[in-house]
Amino acid sequence: MGPPLVQVDAFADRPFAGNPAAVCLLDGPADAGWMQSVAAEMNLSETAFLHPDGDGYALRWFTPAAEVALCGHATLASAHALWEGGHVDPGAAIAFATLSGTLTADRDGDLIRMDFPATPPEADAPPPGLADALGLALRWTGRSRFDWFAEAGSPAAVAAMAPDMGRLAALEGQGVIVSAAGGSEGADVTSRYFAPAVGIPEDPVTGSAHCALAPFWSARLGRDRLVCHQASARGGVVRTELRGDRVLLAGRAVTVLEGRLATGP
Is residue 28 domain-shared with residue 62, that is, in the same domain? Predict the structure, then answer.
């Protein structure tokens, strides 16, 4: 039999909401090609692979099409899987060695809280065709470390978007974050995230996008703590706290599937 694999709905307080991630628990490093094949087989926005590494865990993330350098929801899912599976003491923090440096996760009441790098967007002219591809009038555009960043006129405009995925896939960069101030469920910010170029037409709830959303909207709204609603079909809530060049991301998670792969690395 192959290694254990758990599917977790991240940034969700009930099954079949938030963003599903697969978490593969390995004994040691695995071949990148094998991990990419597993991620393609799972066909979720992210599959996380982790194995013990010193006092913590090494962690890598793969979409169905590519490895990525930062992923929030699959990190949250990984922490949840380690605690729920009895691999880590429920009261202990977890350190993950990743392509974006050391990331940590701990518990804050019933929330899982992660410490991530801030990736604030810098103003930049949009690439040709961005507004047309999104079907929106854009108030502000810029680029974060990974993505294009666009401000829309209202939460309703963000929720109603029906982007042209073919045109978005042709743009340079990993994906596009679109957001506006305010929203339903008491949200300070409403957003959506699209990354068809790496095999994710629309991501349900995107932790890494909030590394850009938090510094941008904290500056605009004048407070360090925000409640952010990602208005995909599944939807989810990410609570953010800006701390200098770091962002705390917090949310809940629910296990929906447990099993083993039939083949190993």
Answer: yes
C-beta of residue 205 within 8 angstroms of C-beta of residue 50 = no
The pLDDT of 47-75, averaged and rounded, is: 97
Contact between 176 and 208 under an 8 Å Cβ cutoff? The reply is no
Q: Please name which of 224, 216, 229, 220 lies closest in space to residue 241, comparing C-alpha atoms.
A: 224
Q: Which of 28, 27, 19 is nearest to 47 (CA)?
A: 19
Read off the pTM. Answer: 0.94
CA angle, 259 then 29 then 203, to 5°:
60
CB contact at 8 A, 176 and 130: yes
Q: For the segment 157-213, what is each residue's pLDDT rounded down to a tens digit? A: 999 999 999 999 998 888 999 999 999 878 999 999 999 999 999 999 999 999 999
Helix, strand and coil in the chain, % to nearest 5: 20, 40, 40
Domain residues for the domain of 200 are 122-244
Same domain, 84 and 136: no
The one-character DSSP state at 165 is H
Residues serving a catalytic function are: 46
Pick from 63, 33, 31, 67: nearest CA to 47 = 63
Count of CB atoms within 10 A of residue 110's CB?
Answer: 8
When pLDDT is cut at 50, 70 and 90, the band that residue 229 belongs to is: very high
Other beta carbons within 10 angstroms of residue 14's beta carbon come to 10
